[in-house]
Backbone:
């Protein structure tokens, strides 16, 4: 005959509150309202303030997941953020901490990776095959053959009990902000609250961070005295405007100089926010984490920690079982007995570890049925509560340089205050034990000292009272097996086997077994791992030491790390016009540019036959002033600049020290000591840095000021045989070719706008003027050009037409027709590079390149079949079938009615007239003839009209 | 050659466009406690000179600080936002006059200096209100506490991943920041600030001027 009540078989809606207790003094649920949700497809209800799991527990559910390797049923253990048995999927969100996440209306909650159901999971067969999943099995199995690794990966993935992110999931909303509080207090229990209040009262700004949804720590599930003290401390916190409280937030780590990432949830409209805090002083006050006990069957649903019972009963008014055995070694366990009795739970046995009594094992299939005591008795129970000790979660202190020491008298590690940096303090249970008054007194002093160290108080150092640790029996393992790491399914046997195999260092054991590597990040597991290993190796716990506590305190979502997306976007002043006129946008770095306006070939033809205008605002522009500008230009460009007269512009190419082409552009001399340099659009920032670098490091004596003015000017290129006619209608500048010739610059008024810079250049191969107007008037001038040229058939043209036009003209684009290895003579710059200059950047390398004369050359290409346009990057083959080059630019030329291209080609194939083979991406070969790079107007007559 | 009346435009699109001082500005008027205004029409002149020499003394503003002075009869704000680099803000349309005044002022220093009107090359917004630091904290890593960046601070940093001069220029005791960056990112910068300030009730208001 069983003493346990038979579970009722009722509809879920009938049992919504089957285990719900009458109102409790400290409960956090709102009984006036209900919240509907689904659990594995079945509708349930709970109350606001319930966690997912407390609502399910109130409905009588006891199994919430299956374990990592063996798919064993798992239930509540800690009823907190750390609970390894309560990780669930909520909608599209995987790996939700169900014992912490608050219930919300309409939640679709499911167990993770259970099939066909949580109750009957076929993968539980893994338990039968556990000998094949031995310690470090992934180092021993699935190794060969390597070709099957992808298959292994797929199979193993199906067994992992993680959740999933459906491909069609809506993106989350993640935020990031910075904070610079004087003091960050990690932990909002009584010590954390008291420290925060004291620091604030001393003049410090404070960020008080609490993992739970309310401040209060263990006071929340205490008796009337604790609740009264809780109310008092909360009121003190609320009265301090200098305290910013973050609940449902986790201090993730402590980096140098108190760089402290805090992940906060529960912010309206935001899934998660990463607060990047830089604190003057960090006060670590996380309290203590109750430690599980290692014994056979310790993972059965129904085996819980005393704090879990106290939370369930007092915060959520949930009866955690019907018949309980309590293993207690401390007052918290004793208090749990009282809570159980007040909740109507039959306490069948109190096993007092302080008197040497013990529990050997727990038995049951999908839940606890029998507890086997140390004296051999077997007690029927559906609840086994353990209260065997505490772990000080010192990871933030470890990350600060502290090395906590093991205190056998208290059975836990405690911080070593002598090793903590000046800007880190610890308060509360992590330091020592005491009643609330003692904790608050200690934390009050710590808070005042934190404010002082943060520079907010001129007082002398605060005397922080001692907070001694209390005696506690050392209870880690019953020696009967059981799990050490519930998240990773690592058993005590796994630890001892690892030690037997030679992995006797705790760091090696961690990596070999994966103990402490799960979502709880060692806070439940580390000390037990160390203790089991110590027993297996015959060493003490102190000798064994702990693993390294690294960031983060808890797993962090990638979304939280990424935060709000900051991707700067740059627009020309003419962008509104482009958008109104159907421009197809091209993303060019940060710039949004018109690729074309629907007919790029037509745009090319308009420029060749009439006039077109293109927005070239993104062209980099640097204003250069000073008497040594010419020297600077001579140093940075491969050609000569000292001879450039006022009113002239010149094309120049910059090479790096290795002779590789890095940028090009034209520079105009506007005055005796005043130049305007243009760069490629993508190279503007790089060239600015390059120029400043040479000025500041190589020639600080030169008097040159460089100012980036890329967006000070809106730039428009007016191109085509009728461009002079169009521009002449809007400017007072004399455009007569005798007085404003090719490669010259003028300043003047355009469309009523003063201060415009006009230079006559020809990237498109046509008569053209590049007009740079003060940017605020860019749209105005553009609109005036379009209006004034209506009768001339003026058309806007985009980047694609410009690419075709310059390709027809044989003008290379740096970065497209060159790459990171293309030296000057491979870029068709033979006539430009002045090796007879005294010096310029890249000169030695370029001399050597000329002497070798073996480098690839930039050539023109024309496929014999003029209708074939080889894709750019197509390979060019030599006669032996090897790679001899590549197509760098390739388009159908509207002007010539055939395909044309540019290529980088081996020297021996670069002679004009040579026929080469181009291998297309689809594997076909086509034949092309090497030509001059200039396909249209090789004499340049169209430029100089 | 035909003549047209040219209207200058900011990179930040106005909600209710109107023309003042030859610039298209936003006519929106907001009285809320937290506002963002487009101040791009202000004249913006760059001065380059030795970090700490006669020109610096003539300008009266050191690196990292601001000062309000009278220059050629115009009240201007000078911000030492970069080493050896000053930004001079004046009323709309005064750029050329400011350049002339500054060149005259600096001519006597004997130092190598340059003065450049960047009015059209830069975007300028003002974020004002007690909650302004909270808005900025969403997009800028700088400590905005009084002890670190008091009124009159000028610095160059990243705001929403854009290089920006942040100039604290409180008005009537109310926190106020001028944010100055290159023009083409102006709309993006304004949008980023509005997004960061949405939860704090940030509202757009029209051009205010140096005030």
Residues:
């Amino acid at each position: 005959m069983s003493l346990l009540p038979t579970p009722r078989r009722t509809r879920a809606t009938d049992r919504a509150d089957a285990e719900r207790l009458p109102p409790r003094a400290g409960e956090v649920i709102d009984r006036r309202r209900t919240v509907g949700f689904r659990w594995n497809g079945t509708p349930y209800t709970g109350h606001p303030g319930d966690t997912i799991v407390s609502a399910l527990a109130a409905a009588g559910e006891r199994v919430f997941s299956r374990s990592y390797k063996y798919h064993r049923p798992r239930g509540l253990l800690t009823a907190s953020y750390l609970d390894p048995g309560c990780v669930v999927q909520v909608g599209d969100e995987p790996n939700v901490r169900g014992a912490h996440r608050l219930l919300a209306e309409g939640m679709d909650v499911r167990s993770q990776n259970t099939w066909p159901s949580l109750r009957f999971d076929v993968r539980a067969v893994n338990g039968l095959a556990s000998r094949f999943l031995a310690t470090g099995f992934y180092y021993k199995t699935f190794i060969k053959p390597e070709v099957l690794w992808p298959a292994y990966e797929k199979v193993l993935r199906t067994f992992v009990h993680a959740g999933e992110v459906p491909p069609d999931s809506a993106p989350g909303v993640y935020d990031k902000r910075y904070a610079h509080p004087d003091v960050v207090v990690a932990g909002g229990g009584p010590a954390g609250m008291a420290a925060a209040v004291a620091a604030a009262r001393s003049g410090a700004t404070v960020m008080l961070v609490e993992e739970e949804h309310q401040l209060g720590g263990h006071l929340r599930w205490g008796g009337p005295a604790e609740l009264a003290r809780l109310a008092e401390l909360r009121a003190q916190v609320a009265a301090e405007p200098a305290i910013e409280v973050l609940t449902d937030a986790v201090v993730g780590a402590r980096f140098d100089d108190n760089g402290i990432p805090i992940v906060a949830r529960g912010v309206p409209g935001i899934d998660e926010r990463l607060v990047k805090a830089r604190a003057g002083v960090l006060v670590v006050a996380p309290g203590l984490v109750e430690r599980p006990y290692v014994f056979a069957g310790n993972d059965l649903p129904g085996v819980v920690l005393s704090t879990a019972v106290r939370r369930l009963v007092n915060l959520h008014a949930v009866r955690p079982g019907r018949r309980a055995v309590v293993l207690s070694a401390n007052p918290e366990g004793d208090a749990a007995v009282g809570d159980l009795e007040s909740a109507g739970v039959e306490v069948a046995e109190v096993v007092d570890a302080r008197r040497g009594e013990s529990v050997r094992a727990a038995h049951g299939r999908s839940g606890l049925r029998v507890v086997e005591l140390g004296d051999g008795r077997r007690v029927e129970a559906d609840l086994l509560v353990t209260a065997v000790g505490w772990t000080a979660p010192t990871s933030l202190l470890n990350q600060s340089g502290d090395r906590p020491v093991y205190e056998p008298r208290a059975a836990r590690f405690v911080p070593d205050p002598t090793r903590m940096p000046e800007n880190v303090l610890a308060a509360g249970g992590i330091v020592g034990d005491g009643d609330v008054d003692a904790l608050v007194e200690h934390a009050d002093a710590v808070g005042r000292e934190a404010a002082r160290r943060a520079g907010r108080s001129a007082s002398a150092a605060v005397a922080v009272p001692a907070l001694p640790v209390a005696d506690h029996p050392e209870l880690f393992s019953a020696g009967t097996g059981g799990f050490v790491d519930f998240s990773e399914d690592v058993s005590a046997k796994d630890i001892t086997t690892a030690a037997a195999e030679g992995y006797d260092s705790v760091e090696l054991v961690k990596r070999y077994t994966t103990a402490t590597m799960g979502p709880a990040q060692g806070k439940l597991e580390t000390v037990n791992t160390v203790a089991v290993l110590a027993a297996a190796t015959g060493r003490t716990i102190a000798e064994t030491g702990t693993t390294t506590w690294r960031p983060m305190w808890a797993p962090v979502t990638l979304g939280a790390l990424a935060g709000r997306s900051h991707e700067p976007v740059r627009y020309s002043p003419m962008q509104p016009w482009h958008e109104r006129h159907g421009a197809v946008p091209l993303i060019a770095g940060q710039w949004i540019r018109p690729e074309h306006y629907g007919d790029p070939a037509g745009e090319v033809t308009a420029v060749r036959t009439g006039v077109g205008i293109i927005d070239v605002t993104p062209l980099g522009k640097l204003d250069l002033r000073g008497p040594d500008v010419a020297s600077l230009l001579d140093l940075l460009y491969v050609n000569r600049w000292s001879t450039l007269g006022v009113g002239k512009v010149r094309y120049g190419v910059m090479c790096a020290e290795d002779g590789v082409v890095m940028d090009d552009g034209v520079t105009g001399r506007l005055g005796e000591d005043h130049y305007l340099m243009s760069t490629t659009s993508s190279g503007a920032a790089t060239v600015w840095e390059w120029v400043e670098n040479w000025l500041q490091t190589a020639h600080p004596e030169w008097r040159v000021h460089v100012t980036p003015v890329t967006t000070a000017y809106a730039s428009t290129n007016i191109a085509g045989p009728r461009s002079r006619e169009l521009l002449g209608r809007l400017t007072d500048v004399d455009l007569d070719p005798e007085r404003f010739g090719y490669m010259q610059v003028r300043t003047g008024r355009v469309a009523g706008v003063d201060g415009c810079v006009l230079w006559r250049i020809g990237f498109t191969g046509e008569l053209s003027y590049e007009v740079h107007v003060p940017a605020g008037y860019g749209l105005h001038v553009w609109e005036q050009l379009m209006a004034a040229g209506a009768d001339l058939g003026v058309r806007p043209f985009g980047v694609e037409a410009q690419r075709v036009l310059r390709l027809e003209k044989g003008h290379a684009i740096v970065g497209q027709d060159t790459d990171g290895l293309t030296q000057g003579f491979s870029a068709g710059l033979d006539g430009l590079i002045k090796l007879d200059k005294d010096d310029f950047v890249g000169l030695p390398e370029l001399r050597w390149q000329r002497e070798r004369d073996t480098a690839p050359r930039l050539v023109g290409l024309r496929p014999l079949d003029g209708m074939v346009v080889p894709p750019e990057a197509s390979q060019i083959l030599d006669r032996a079938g090897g790679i001899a080059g590549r197509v760098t630019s390739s388009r159908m030329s509207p002007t010539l009615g055939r395909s044309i291209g540019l290529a980088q080609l081996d020297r021996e194939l670069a002679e004009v007239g040579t026929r080469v083979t181009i291998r297309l991406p689809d594997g076909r070969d086509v034949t092309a003839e090497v030509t001059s790079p200039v396909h249209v107007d090789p004499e340049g007559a169209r430029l100089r009209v | 050659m035909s003549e047209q009346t040219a209207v200058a435009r900011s990179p930040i699109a106005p909600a209710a466009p109107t023309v003042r001082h030859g610039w298209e500005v936003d006519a929106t008027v907001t009285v809320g406690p937290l506002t963002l205004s487009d101040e791009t029409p202000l004249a913006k002149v760059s001065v380059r000179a030795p970090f700490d020499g006669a020109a610096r003394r003539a300008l009266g503003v050191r690196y990292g600080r601001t000062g309000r002075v009278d220059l050629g009869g115009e009240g201007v704000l000078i911000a030492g936002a970069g080493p050896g680099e000053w930004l001079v803000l004046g009323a709309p349309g005064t750029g050329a006059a400011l350049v002339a005044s500054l060149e005259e002022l600096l001519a006597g220093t004997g130092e190598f200096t340059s003065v450049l009107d960047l009015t059209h090359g830069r975007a300028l917004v003002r974020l004002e209100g007690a909650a302004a630091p909270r808005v900025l904290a969403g997009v800028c890593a700088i400590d905005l506490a009084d002890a670190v960046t008091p009124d009159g601070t000028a610095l160059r940093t990243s705001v929403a991943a854009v290089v920006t001069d942040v100039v604290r220029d409180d008005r009537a005791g109310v926190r106020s920041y001028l944010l100055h960056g290159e023009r083409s990112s102006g709309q993006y910068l304004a949008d980023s600030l509005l997004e960061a300030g949405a939860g704090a009730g940030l509202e757009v208001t029209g051009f205010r001027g140096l005030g």
The two ends of chain A are 111 Å apart (CA to CA). The mean pLDDT of chain A is 94.
